[in-house]
Amino acid sequence: MSNRQSDGSVSRISDDQIIELISKLRQLLPEIRNSRSDKVSASKVLEEICNYIRRLHKEVDDLSDGLSQLLATTDADGALPRLL
């Protein structure tokens, strides 16, 4: 694998670096981190991390929508409505 740097040079990522990065990603995934199996393929980790990021984006969107609705219900003096 390679990536192009801003100065036009190409730097290589070693297999050990890829393994280390995949390991770090594994630790971010609750489903994989809590599993008993240490044998999870790199492709499965990448697939799960993409799904996890999608779920987090949806959660942020849902929370943002809820906050927008709550702010829209403020009364004239700017006080938030009582929730209980």
Keywords, please?
84 residues, 2 strands, two-stranded antiparallel sheet, elongated, mainly alpha, MYOD Basic-Helix-Loop-Helix Domain, subunit B
Quick overview of this protein structure:
The chain is mostly helical. The chain has helices at 15-28, 30-33, 42-72; strands at 2-4, 10-12.
Structure description:
By secondary structure, this protein is mostly helical. It has one domain (2-72): MYOD Basic-Helix-Loop-Helix Domain, subunit B (Irregular). The protein has three helices and two strands; from the N terminus they run ββααα. The protein has helices at residues 15-28, 30-33, 42-72; strands at residues 2-4, 10-12. It has a two-stranded antiparallel ribbon. The protein is elongated.
Please give the structural blueprint.
Blueprint: E1 2-4, E2 10-12, H1 15-28, H2 30-33, H3 42-72
Antiparallel strand pairs: 1-2
Helix pairs in contact: 1-3
Strand content: 5-15%
Number of helices: 3
Order of helices and strands: EEHHH
Which CATH architecture would you pick?
Irregular
The radius of gyration over CA amounts to 21 Å
Structural class: mainly alpha
Give the beta-strand count: 2
- Name the shape in a single word: elongated
User: Could you say what the CATH topology is called?
Assistant: MYOD Basic-Helix-Loop-Helix Domain, subunit B
CATH class: Few Secondary Structures
Euclidean distance between termini CA atoms: 55 Å
Biggest pleated sheet: 2 strands, antiparallel
**Count of folded domains:** 1
Helix content: 55-70%
How are the strands ordered across the major sheet?
Answer: 1-2
Mean pLDDT: 81
- Poorly predicted runs: none
Protein name: BHLH domain-containing protein
Keywords: Growth regulation, Nucleus, Transcription, Transcription regulation
Main location: nucleus
Subcellular location: Nucleus
